[in-house]
Every structure is written in C-alpha cells, then in structure tokens.
Fold:
Amino acid sequence: MKLLEGKKGIITGALDEKSIAWKVALKAREHGASFTLSNAPVALRMGTIQELGRLCDAQIISADATSLDDIKNLYNKSIEILGGKLDFVLHSIGMSPNVRKGKVYTDLNYDFYLKTLDISAVSFHKMIQTAYQMDCINEWGSFTALSYIAAQRVFPDYGDMADAKALLESIARSFGYHFGKFKKVRVNTISQSPTITTAGSGVKGFDVFHEFAAKMSPLGNAPAEACADFCIFLFSDLSRFITMQNLYHDGGFSNVGVDPSVLVGN
Ligand code: NAI
Structure:
C-alpha cells in the first residue's frame, strides 16, 4: 500500500546513510511521494546526499535552516520543481556548538547556546512561519520534527540540546494551534530513541545511554527505519487528526520507572 501517492514534500537533514532523514527519504519514495532534499551548504559538501538524491530521484536544495532567505528559496524552488503546494515537511536538524566543543551545561558559552537554540529549535519555527505566510502547504499537510526525551528528563551529557528540544516541542504545540485553525495543517514532534548517527554519536557517553535505553525499553530501542515508518504515517492521511503532540517512539522507555533486570546482579 502506498500511503503518500501524489503527495509532495521537503525532507531536511539527510547527511549520510546513518541519518534518520535518509531512511525517511527512502521510505517516502517507496510510498509514492515526490520531494526535494535539503541540507546546510557545508553538509552538501561533506555528506553523501547526492547519492540519496539519485536513489530517490529528488533534487537537492541548499539551505541553512537558520536563514529566512534560504528557507523562502527552499519553498519557492520546491514548489516549482514539484509542481504545486506541499503536503509534508520533515525537520531533522540538530547541532550544538557547546556539545561539539565539550562545553558542559554548567559552563556554557552563550553565543554557542543561542546558536544551538537557533539551529535545533528556532529553525523549526522559521520553517513553519515562512510556509504559513507563503500559504504554501495544502490542507491537512503535516510538519514533523525529531525530538528527544531530554526535553522532559535530565540526561546530563545532552547539555544545552535538552533546552533546544524543550523549545522544539513547545513550538510544535503553539504553531500547531495556529496552522490548524488557518489551514488544518498539523505540527508534531517525534521523541525518538537514541540512534547511532553523526548527531547522536556526537554526545559524550552516547554509547552508555544508548545501551541503557535499550535495556530499559521493553521493546528495545526504536531503530531509525522504524522512526521513518512513523514519519510516513504522520505525513499520511491516516494521522490527519493528530496535531500539537510530542509522540514517543522509544520502545516504551519514557514510561518505565525501574526495570529490575537492568540492575547489576539481576
Ligand atoms: P544527523 O547528524 O544525520 O542529522 C542532523 C542534521 O542536521 C545533519 O544533516 C546536519 O547537516 C543538519 N544541520 C545541522 N545544522 C544545520 C543547519 N544550520 N541548517 C540545516 N541543516 C543543519 O543525525 P540524526 O540523528 O539523524 O539527527 C536528526 C534529528 O534527530 C536531530 O534533530 C536530532 O537531534 C534528532 N534525534 C536524534 C537522536 C539520535 O540519537 N540520533 C535521538 C532523538 C532525536
């Protein structure tokens, strides 16, 4: 069954074949969607997105997600290439200069902090607001961004990304209201299990909490391919009354208090 037949969209954040967005693009193609791919100029130079473009028959548009001009250009070009208004947008973008440079939460560089928030959260607002003002999304369209449970619980090494994810989820709620009223467009975040990707592995101690989460989750960690399936569902008409939600896609991790089998000696 093809869930996205005739639908048009934009998929951001595919850097290499480990990226969650990479898997989403392959599945979206399988499900009959046509879309453009986008990433920051530096990622286009360093990553392997051109290969994904060939695999999905998708054109690639360079856009720094913090730049309103780049975002406008991304929408204009996508509409021209795809031949009409859009049905779905994936925001799969995250980066913290503090985390990257080993600056812990108690010793943040505030210029970096603002960059973290701009790249990882405010860019979602910028993408949604630009589309809202351009009125370039079809009714029942769907915006989806990727979040992490550090928005609700403390994961000390996740640093300022935790604050960015809290803001990201809040933007989905707040803008989901306005876009829902305006055009029945939906806005959600998916709170995904730790996943081995370039962004994920950049967090100190990632291997430990990846393994810990796998043990604590009754179903184990949700893999990137399953996250892609969930994104396809959210882009599709099957989920048309889901909006303003942060949806856990984590094998049950978020609702487990204690799992005796994880304790040493059990
Ligand atoms: P990834 O490193 O493959 O993707 C992150 C993407 O953000 C890259 O393609 C990068 O080029 C892009 N990016 C960074 N700065 C940008 C900018 N200024 N403009 C446009 N794009 C920019 O890693 P992954 O894991 O696929 O990350 C995708 C999303 O999933 C991120 O929001 C991440 O925080 C989130 N996530 C990841 C988890 C994990 O454990 N890997 C868990 C939960 C959420």
Notes: The CA atoms of residues 113 and 204 lie 17 Å apart.
